[in-house]
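Record 1 of the preview.
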Amino acid sequence: MVKKIKLPFVNPKLMGEMIRQQIRSALYYEQESTKVEIAQITGLTFPTVSKAMEEMKADGEVLLSGLRESSGGRRPQMYMLNAAHMSGLAVYLEKDCTIYTLLNYVGEVLLQERLPGVLDEGPEALDRQMKVYLERYPLIRALTFGVPASVTNGQVFHIPSYEKFNGYDLKAAYESRYRLQVQIENDMNATVLGYHDQLDNNKSLSLVYLYFGMNGPGAGIMVNGKLVRGNTFFAGEVFYLPLGQQNFGEVIQELTNRSNKKRDDAKLIDAMSRLVAIFTATLNPDIFIFCSINLSEKDLEEVKSRSALYVPEAHLPALIIRNWQQDYIHGLKQMTIRTMLGTGIE
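->
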């Protein structure tokens, strides 16, 4: 008797959405393509692609953009995502300001506005700002918040100095009130994602991105191209790394608050060099990124030299300086775009 193998049930609606996600992703990166080209990119069959794209066209998600040049015979039709189909909002939350970036369906920035910070006031102040955008732009379907805090399943925790947001479930608050897909991400995780997205070639690099922050230092970490959040979503909280009789955060705060700049610089360089050595010995990253507002090119050279006193120079990562805010906002934008496309963040 032949034993029957029971195959897992696959919801046809879910399968259809997975197919659409692949088509959206292909059209986003290629900007415009024919059905044959999309089938080649995705590995889906031509009939599957053709059927899904006709449905997407009927829904207004995909537009006919023209005809491809042909060496002979009928010219194939080209398709593109409809930029006006939906929009997404990326929200940068920091002590001094809140930056709102509105994106269309193909990732183009429609507007970017800087408003007063709301972290000190609490969730109600954020709600007042958000309500204006959500009423003014009814096509918003994806919402991403970047916060200077640890985050677990959309709930904010460990957010020093902003107790009104501590324990606040930001994701649930906005998903329950509005028809939105909401993501909440730690600021440094979003920043390292933003830098990683801009790498041209090798996307499997291991990265550490350090920022002193307004309430203590933090780091975004990627290993082999994958974001590291940790067992309790606490990865990157370098404030607590022991450094002598203090921890790294206490040392940084103490040194940056002193008036004797020359003495501070020498100890600050040593503290950062020790941190580079710690990550070199534990993760052995390809690149260690500092922020331009924290470090000068001259400082960077001193960190390179000093780090080599603690670990063999041959194993040190490349040390570079970046514009933190630009990488952070780029990361939030990419997360918002991927939410709209349904591809998510790994």
